[in-house]
Amino acid sequence: MALAAAPAQAADEATVSVLHGIPGLTVDVYANGQQLLPDFKPGTLTDPQELPAGSYDIKVFKDNEGPNGTPALQKQVEVPAGANATLVAHLDANGAPMLSAFVNDTAPVAAGKARVTVRHVAAAPAVDVRANGTPVFTGLTNPKEAKGEVDAGMIKADVTLAGTSTVALGPADLNLAEGTNTVVYAYGSAADKTLALKTQAITGLHSAPGGVPAGGSGAAANARTDDGGGAPAWAIGLAAAGALGLAAGGYRVVANRRN
What are the residue boundaries of the DUF4397 domain, all occurrences included (predicted)? Predict the structure, then answer.
């Protein structure tokens, strides 16, 4: 998915990533009438981008059915001031498509520690999340999240049906690096046997003086980008759409000033 900022707040910025968590549905994403993410495939997480803040109107269509068809997803969402956020297209507990906006916690992490965040965005009942066989988050329901700080290092994580030892997902080895927030998404459908995990690493959260400070709002902390190149086409499209101030129905995201 992609966003387009309104000119009224163009001087502000937010860091935004987008995850496609609806199995079997390749989509085209439009922001303010412009196609910004064509052929967006399930399981894809975009690189984080600092984008002009403002109001975002987004429609998500099945591949090649936009912009005049009926959108598969259409909603208004708001991102708080200075946020580092991830937008997730996913299934609700009953299997209907929906979009959720999550604010990523970029507060400093104590020396030797790492933050782990788990987000339930799957068509599945309540779950427990275990680390090395021990439940650490219990009774997590869609579309909720749970988080905590743990000792940095490797853990073996799995997801079980709440209150049981029945494994629904995993186990998966997670490297929880010091000064990071590792975000784990459980997405897909239990009934369709498409449950899967996706991880997002948000770096630069070391406590002073040992690392890079997150800044007053924490928006300076980003998930790492590996390609080393410039902004992708979807991010450039967002800025362009924001400059034009186009109007359209769909998702609305308001992301405000980074301190």
Answer: 14-130
